[in-house]
Design goal:
Largest sheet: 6 strands, parallel
Bound molecules: nicotinamide-adenine-dinucleotide, (2S)-2-hydroxybutanedioic acid
Number of helices: 12
Order of helices and strands: EHEHEHEHEHEHEEEEEHHHHHEEEH
């Protein structure tokens, strides 16, 4: 049976980097037939038609059908996975939360339709910014779908952090394990390497603090580089990240589908159950392990005073975003 996968924002730049990777089997499996439902707004439909032509011309055996639509009722019907990319991206000088007003309505409308017509097992990944709060809105508008089926993307931040450490130590990125992104996909996020390690060729693990040997950098420039990386890309490209965002979508969704490796965790924004003192109900990025398509928050990690302060700060920002978002939603 073909898996029904909806991607919104199908005419946009992230989708353009993402769709080929999904359609050739990188995300849901090399043997898994797929049906793609591509949603965008009516003025963008001619562009989406061009994307559909290119997908056909890629001649991909797993891709059984592609539907281009501007109708939520077509896009979300019986979907197994929904990747919600479609939203306005920020421009130079904006913070991601400045997008809340423009984008909250999109996620409210989509949540309501997902609630009615998607499969109850649907896995929903919110990418459009501000991703955590848009995810919270979507979940709030889809009460018949289990809360655990919603997540937002902080994998790009994780990938960025892994690269920075790998580059500093002089190893390849896959040798850096268990970096954590806590909190909001924003400038308050806390990239935490206090539980992370670097592997050498024999498989021996060295804690990142020992491998890097520069606490000031790890507690200073490393953190701000990750927090401000999205803005740095916008400044350079005059467009927000797309290739790296699409790669992170694939990483996030593939791990959700197939599970995390033993002894490894990944970061994703999920509904807080109060773990680590994070207020319940916020969509907050935690380290998670995934088995049988179910994530669970990694428990029992020690939290230093330094980390506590940063984790609370980003929770506070999410609390404020939540209150602002709720004030925008129709009653
Ligand atoms: P883009 O402007 O290139 O594309 C967005 C597309 O969404 C456009 O084609 C637009 O018409 C469409 N769209 C608007 N309203 C829609 C709706 N109601 N339904 C369906 N589609 C709709 O933007 P992009 O660069 O692809 O970025 C998309 C979003 O992803 C932005 O909000 C951006 O900030 C965010 N983003 C998040 C991360 C992350 O790590 N979470 C990373 C990069 C970008
Ligand atoms: C990113 O992290 O690159 C995206 O969220 C885009 C942005 O606005 O920073």
């Amino acid at each position: 049976m073909a898996l029904r996968v909806c991607v919104t924002g199908a005419a946009g730049q992230i989708a353009y980097s993402l769709l080929y990777s999904i359609a050739k089997g990188d995300v849901f499996g090399a043997d898994q037939p797929l049906e793609l439902l591509l949603l965008d707004i009516p003025p963008m439909m001619t562009i989406v038609e061009g994307v559909v032509m290119e997908l056909s011309d890629c001649s991909l055996p797993l891709l059984k059908n592609v539907v281009a639509t501007a109708d939520y009722n077509v896009a979300f019907k019986d979907v197994d996975a929904a990747i919600l990319v479609g939203a306005m991206p920020r421009k130079e000088g904006m913070e991601r939360k400045d997008l809340l007003k423009a984008n909250a309505k999109i996620f409210e409308g989509q949540g309501k339709v997902i609630d009615q017509i998607a499969k109850k097992t649907v896995k929903i990944l919110v990418v459009g910014n501000p991703a955590n709060t848009n995810c919270l809105i979507t979940k709030s508008c889809a009460p018949s779908i289990p809360a655990a089926n919603f997540s937002c993307m902080t994998r790009l931040d994780q990938n960025r952090a892994q690269f920075q450490i790998a580059n500093r130590v002089g190893v390849s990125c896959d040798k850096v394990r268990n970096v954590i992104i806590w909190g909001n996909h924003s400038a308050t996020q806390f990239p935490d390497v206090s539980h992370a390690s670097v592997l050498d060729n024999s498989g021996k693990k060295t804690p990142v603090y020992e491998a890097v040997k520069d606490d000031a950098w790890l507690k200073g420039d490393f953190i701000t580089t990750i927090q401000k990386r999205g803005a740095a890309v916008i400044k350079a490209r005059k467009l927000s990240s797309a290739m790296s965002a699409a790669k992170a979508v694939g990483d996030h969704m593939r791990d959700w589908w197939f599970g995390t490796k033993p002894d490894e965790w990944v970061s994703m924004g999920v509904i807080s159950d109060g773990s680590y003192g994070v207020p319940e109900g916020l969509v907050y990025s935690f380290p998670v392990k995934i088995t049988d398509k179910e994530w669970s928050i990694v428990q029992g990690l020690s939290i230093s005073d330094f980390a506590r302060e940063k984790m609370d700060l980003t929770a506070k920002e999410l609390q404020q975003e939540k209150e602002t978002a709720l004030s925008f939603l129709s009653q």
